[in-house]
């Protein structure tokens, strides 16, 4: 948020950053998104490169990637041995991540990934521990 002043009449105003929100559609007009549709929605080249690194990490961890809820939303679901371990949603200029945190035994709130390093600190260790945990729990 930034305060601005009009030099002509001295009025003061606030400029607020906007956040992109997914539009809810009626079931009659629902579009199902494929993995490629979800990935292609992200338009920012540098952020796309970051997402590609994250996707490679999931691949190396042996995770399956599929559209969340069959493609009803622009989110990808990552599973390991049939169990969900993380979700990633794409926006035009960013992507969000969500993972399970065994320390609090709950899913963390979705957050915008600021960089690959941010994702490596905030999500990757939790996902790695879930993937490497013996069957039956972390």
Written account of the structure:
The protein has 138 residues and is α+β, with helices and mostly antiparallel strands. The chain has one domain (30-132). It has 4 helices and 8 strands. A hairpin with a 6-residue loop joins strand 1 (2-5) and strand 2 (12-15).
Quick summary:
With 138 residues, the protein is of the alpha+beta class.
Which structural class do the helices and strands define?
Answer: alpha+beta
Number of domains: 1
Query: If you compute it from the alpha carbons, what radius of gyration comes out, rounded to the nearest whole angstrom?
Result: 18 Å
The rounded distance between the terminal residues' Cα atoms is: 41 Å
Instruction: Estimate percent helicity.
Output: 25-40%
What would the principal axes of the Cα set say about the shape? elongated
Q: Averaging pLDDT over every residue, what do you get?
A: 87
| DSSP summary: helix tally | 4
Kindly estimate the percentage of residues that lie in beta strands according to DSSP: 25-35%
The helix/strand order is EEHHEEEEEEHH
Topology of helices and strands:
Layout: E1 2-5, E2 12-15, H1 35-41, H2 45-60, E3 64-67, E4 75-80, E5 83-90, E6 95-101, E7 106-107, E8 111-112, H3 116-122, H4 124-132
Antiparallel strand pairs: 1-2, 3-4, 4-5, 5-6, 6-7, 6-8
Keywords:
single chain; 138 residues; alpha+beta; two-stranded antiparallel ribbon; 8 strands; 28% helix
